[in-house]
Structures are given as C-alpha cells and as structure tokens.
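Q: what sequence does this backbone want?
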C-alpha cells in the first residue's frame, strides 16, 4: 500500500465550481484503485480552487488514467464542474500530470489519460487504446455534422447554443461582456432615433451624426480620405479584404479597356501592355456576385448589387490607384467604363459601387466562409477524430475555443432568415447561400496558405502591402512552432502515413468541410511530415491571424458608410454624366440601415473579456519540457513581431494593427 498525493484544480470562471460529490479512480499498469470520494468542503471545488488530497491504495505501477465522475449532492441539482487538471505524485515521488480542461457533468466516468502526447501505434498500452476508442465514440455522439446549405461546409448539429457541448459554450465572463457589447451602441443609436428612421440621408456630412457616436483614429482617417483614389487602392492591400486583388497580365475580354481610356492616368508615354509587363497593373474582379438575387426586405424596399471589374495601377509614387471601373460583367452601351477623367460624381459613385461589392465579398466569402465556417469544420473534426492525448489535438484545440458558439449565434442573428443581412445588406439569406456555394467551388488549398496565396495572386513585390508582410512573419512563427511539435512526435514520414487517427481527421475535414473537392487541392490524406507541418500551420493561421486580418478592421473601415455601403437602394448607373449628389444620397443605405451597420461593426470590434492572445496557452496540455520550451520560443517570436509592428505603426498616417500578435486571438471567437 502507498500514499498517492493528488492536486486537483478547478477552472477560474465564476460558473466552474460545483456542489456535487467528486469521485476519483486511479488506473495503472498493475491495476486500478477503488472509487474514492474526495472530501467535501465548501472551498475544495470552488472556482479557482487548487486543492490537495491523499488516497492510500496498493501499488498501481505506472499510472495511465485518472477516472473522474460526479454525483448529485443530497437534493441539489446536478452542477457541472470544470476541472483544469489532476496532478498525481506516486509513493515513489514520480509526478504524473493529467490535463483535463473540460466540464465533468455526469455520473458516467470520464477517463483522462496521462499528459504526454501519444500517437496510436502497435506499441500503445491496450488500456489506453480502448480509452481512445471509447472517448471518440462518446464525442461523436455529441459532435454531429449537419448540412446547412448544399455545397457549403457542414456545421454542428444544434439549433440553440444551449445544446452545444458544455466545453464549447461561452464562459460566464465571455457571455456577459459579449451581451454588453451588443447592447451598448444599439441603445445609443435607438436613443438618438437613428434605428427607427427609414429616410434617405439629406447630406453626406449628416452621416457623421451616427458614424461619430463611436470612433477610432483609423475610422476618422477613413471618413476624411474615403474619396481619394490612393486610399481606395490602399484598402485592397490593407483594408478589410486584402485577399481579392491580383496582378493583371492580360485585360479580360469582358472588360474592354484600351490605352486611350487610361491615358489620363498613365500618361501618353506608356501603355497598358507595357505597364502589365512591368507588373504594375492589378485587377479586382467581382464576377462571383454576377446573377445573385438582390435583397427585397430592407425597409420593404428593393435593393441592388453589382458585379464590377476594377483595374488598378501602381503609380510612380508606389500608390495603388483605380484607373477603370465597369459595373457589370457584360460590356455594352448600358455598362459604361467609368474613368478618373469622368465627372466627379460619376467616378465617386462608380467607386462606391465597387466598395459595396467589396463589402459583400468580404463579409460572406472572406469572413463567414473562409474564417468562421472553415474554423468550425476544423473544430468539429478535431473533436470527432482525435483523442485528447493525441499531440495534434493538443496543438489544434486551443485554436477552436468558442468557435462553435459564435458561429451558432451568427447563424441566428447575422445571416439567418430575418437576421442582420436580411435587414441591412444587398444580399438576403437566400443570396448568401448561393454566394457561399459559388465561393466553395472556387476554394483552393493554396488560397488558404498565406505564402502560396500571395504568390498565386502575384503580389510578392507590390509595395506597402502590410497584410502580406505581417502575415508572412506570423506564418513563419507558427510554422516554426508546429515543426517543433511535429518533429518531437513523428520521427519519420512513415509515422505520419501510419497514424490512423490523424488520417481520419484530415479525411473528415476534406469530406465534410470541402465537399470532397479534388480539384481544390485540399488534401484528403497526408504523406509526409512536411505536408503535416504545412497543413497544421494553415489551420492555426486561419483560425487566428487570418480571422484577425479580416475581422478586427471592420469598424475602422465600415463606420463611414459611404466608404463601405452595405447595400445600394438604386440600380447601378447605365450612363455617364447624369450622376448628382442627389443620386448618391438616394443610392446609399437609409439612416436606420446605416445605424444598424455601424452598431454591429462596433459591437464586433469591442474586446470581450476572456480572450486568449495568439500563442497564449494557459491550459497546459503539453507537460513535456521540450514542447514547453518550444512554446516559449513561439511566444518570444510573436512578441518581437508585435514590437516591430507597433514601432512601424508610429510613423504611419493610418495604422495597420490587425496582425499585431497582441491583438490576435487564438481562435475565431467573435
């Protein structure tokens, strides 16, 4: 017989503690202990408690599992308990660490394996093998796939956030701060009467009445500079959606721009062909919006959208400026090509139409699909196919924190029937489904990998592309960290190929997330350590940095509505020379629609409590000293990147803080 010393830590959230009875069983290579009830005391399992216990049992050999269960105390209701970890010191003084970081809410025992990451091989202990199978079977009953829209990544099969697994739900802190953020600006807008006014704006300057209720330095800069061509082009590189523009090597046949049209911009000493050869011409093509049905339910009025083409030029001052805009995919007399040499209002309205299209593509394709929905796929597959002792589970799971709840909320409040998009944008919920499906048909693996995407779009050398530069630094830091973890556990390519749990994880993402699209290049299996490192880097980058790049900037660029109108109330102009100030005002969203857009973007820009910055892992899932050292190196690298970005931003007229690691959350959770 010997004394085993237990240290048990309860979560710090206000709801983490429990009044239930807690039971523990130790399981080792030489047997298991009896089921022990841990001593009751009001402070033993309160939020934040770290409590020591002792149990006397026979020698169990090497400890493999800790079995935890709860039972109702007297007549109290069952009270879920969030356990952070269980540490056990054996009679010989050996420390075993069992990271839990999960809710225990049932008398059904939960087996927690010892903390060192383990890959399923022939040499694994049979008891651990059985534990892994039982764990995954249990999780697959909870994490079920559901098809939301045909041809779009599947989501978790719940219709109410209360039905999510407890570990996926917001903490008390997160829930309260999120609700407060959602209500604050809405109440201000309502008090000022903006949310009830369905009239058009009478003057562009009047928009400041609502736009400046909340403001940032960047949002004020946007309101001041939005008409400037140089700022219009700047946003393609460092605005909300820096992933659309690409180098133009040949003018599209349906965009008949010639040298005479652009001579005003380029001058007569060069030509489009020469500038394309020099790598100075770029294209933004919104053909994905072509043919989509426009919303009819914004204030009961028909709305409109366009599918423009916009040609841009890198001028000698290294500024990206628009030089030609066509507001449809079909050239002709009713679809003129607008130019900077046209009348002031003609050119301004053409740019506003492009910005409307940019807003729609940004929110639906870049934000909803490529950040939120893909992150949800990674989260569900990770829980269904990887046991908690698998090193890839330990590596990925911090980057799915709160993703399932924020997505469940979004499906109800943002892009579901009658939700925000129905109320305030050119696309209703039906149009969103069509757009998501079209975007999935164009999705490629290279577009999900930051370095590959930059190269594929030909933007390796365009100047002042801060999204590219900051993203490359963060990608490299993540890749280095991932490499250290992968190389620690996988000693050969054969181990990657022979890991059935890993391969099942990749296959499930391919099947349920990417609809088995072989033409996309999305892997359905992984053959080498190098391919695994790249894949994991993509997953972590997309859930953290990529979401920050296209999410954290929303208020700055959206709060001045003329810069990013969410909807247009009049059809695209079919002729030049007829546009007036009145045309622009009657095309912009109504007052209440503007207020709703600003209110939403402000709420989503507020920093909710209970955030975890990129590389911050308070849940210590890797007890191995080598991995902890690698984690510290990763954190130090991110800190240096953050210092560099903050120093650089000091000299910029408009800052680019969106990929500052100190501003990036580990997961897609807002």
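A:
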């Amino acid at each position: 017989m010997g004394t085993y010393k237990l240290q048990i830590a309860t979560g710090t959230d206000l709801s983490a503690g429990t009044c239930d009875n807690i039971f523990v069983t130790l399981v080792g290579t030489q047997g298991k202990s009896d089921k022990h009830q841990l001593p009751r005391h009001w402070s033993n399992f309160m939020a934040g408690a770290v409590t020591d216990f002792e149990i006397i049992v026979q020698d169990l050999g090497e400890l493999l599992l800790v079995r935890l269960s709860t039972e109702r105390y007297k007549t109290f209701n069952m009270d879920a308990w969030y356990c952070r970890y269980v540490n056990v010191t054996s009679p010989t003084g050996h420390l075993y660490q069992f990271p839990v970081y999960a809710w225990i809410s049932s008398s059904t025992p939960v087996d927690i394996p010892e903390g060192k990451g383990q890959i399923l091989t022939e040499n694994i202990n049979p008891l651990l093998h059985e534990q892994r199978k039982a764990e995954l079977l249990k999780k697959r009953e909870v994490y079920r796939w559901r098809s939301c829209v045909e041809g779009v990544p599947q989501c978790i099969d719940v219709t109410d956030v209360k039905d999510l697994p407890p570990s996926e739900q917001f903490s008390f802190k997160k829930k309260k701060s999120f609700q407060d953020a959602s209500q604050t600006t809405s109440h201000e807008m309502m008090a000022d009467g903006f949310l009830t006014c369905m009239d058009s704006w009478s003057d562009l300057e009047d928009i400041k009445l609502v736009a400046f209720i909340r403001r940032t330095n960047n949002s004020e800069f946007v309101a001041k500079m939005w008409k400037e061509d140089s700022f219009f082009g700047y946003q393609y590189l460092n605005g909300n959606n820096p992933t659309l523009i690409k180098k133009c090597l040949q003018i599209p046949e349906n965009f008949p721009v010639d040298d005479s049209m652009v001579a005003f911009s380029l001058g007569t000493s060069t030509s489009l062909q020469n500038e394309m050869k020099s790598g100075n011409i770029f294209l933004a093509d919104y053909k994905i919006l072509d043919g989509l049905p426009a919303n009819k339910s914004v204030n009961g009025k028909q709305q409109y959208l366009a599918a423009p083409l916009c040609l841009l030029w890198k001028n000698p001052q290294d500024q990206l400026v628009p030089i030609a805009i066509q507001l449809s995919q079909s050239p002709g007399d009713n679809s003129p090509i607008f130019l900077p040499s046209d009348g002031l209002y003609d050119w301004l309205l053409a740019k506003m139409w492009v910005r409307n299209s940019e807003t729609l593509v940004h929110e639906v394709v870049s934000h909803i699909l490529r950040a939120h929905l893909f992150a949800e796929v990674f989260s569900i597959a990770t829980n269904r196919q990887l046991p908690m002792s698998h090193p890839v589970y330990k590596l990925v799971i911090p980057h799915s924190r709160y993703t399932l709840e924020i997505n469940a909320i979004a499906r109800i409040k943002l892009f579901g029937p009658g939700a925000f998009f129905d109320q305030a944008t050119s696309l209703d919920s039906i149009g969103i489904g069509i757009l998501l499906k079209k975007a999935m048909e164009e999705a490629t693996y290279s577009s999900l990998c930051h370095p590959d995407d930059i190269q594929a779009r030909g933007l390796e050398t365009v100047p002042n592309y801060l999204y590219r530069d900051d993203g490359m630094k963060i990608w490299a830091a993540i890749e280095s960290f991932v490499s250290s973890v992968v190389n620690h556990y996988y000693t050969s390519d054969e181990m990657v190929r022979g890991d059935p749990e890993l391969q099942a994880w990749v296959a499930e993402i391919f099947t349920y997330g990417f609809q088995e699209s072989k033409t996309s290049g999305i892997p359905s299996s992984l053959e080498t350590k190098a391919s695994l490192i790249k894949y994991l880097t993509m997953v972590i980058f997309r859930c953290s940095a990529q979401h920050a790049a296209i999410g954290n900037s929303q208020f700055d660029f959206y709060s001045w509505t003329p810069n990013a109108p969410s909807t247009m109330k009049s059809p695209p102009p079919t002729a030049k020379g007829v546009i007036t100030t009145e045309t622009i005002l009657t095309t912009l969203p109504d007052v209440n629609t503007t207020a709703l857009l600003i209110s939403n973007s402000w709420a989503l820009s507020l920093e909710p409590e209970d955030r975890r910055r990129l590389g911050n892992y308070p849940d210590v899932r890797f007890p191995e000293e080598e991995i902890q050292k690698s984690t510290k190196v990763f954190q130090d690298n991110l800190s240096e990147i953050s210092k560099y970005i903050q120093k650089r931003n000091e000299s910029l007229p408009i800052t680019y803080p969106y990929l500052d690691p100190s501003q990036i959350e580990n997961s897609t959770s807002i």
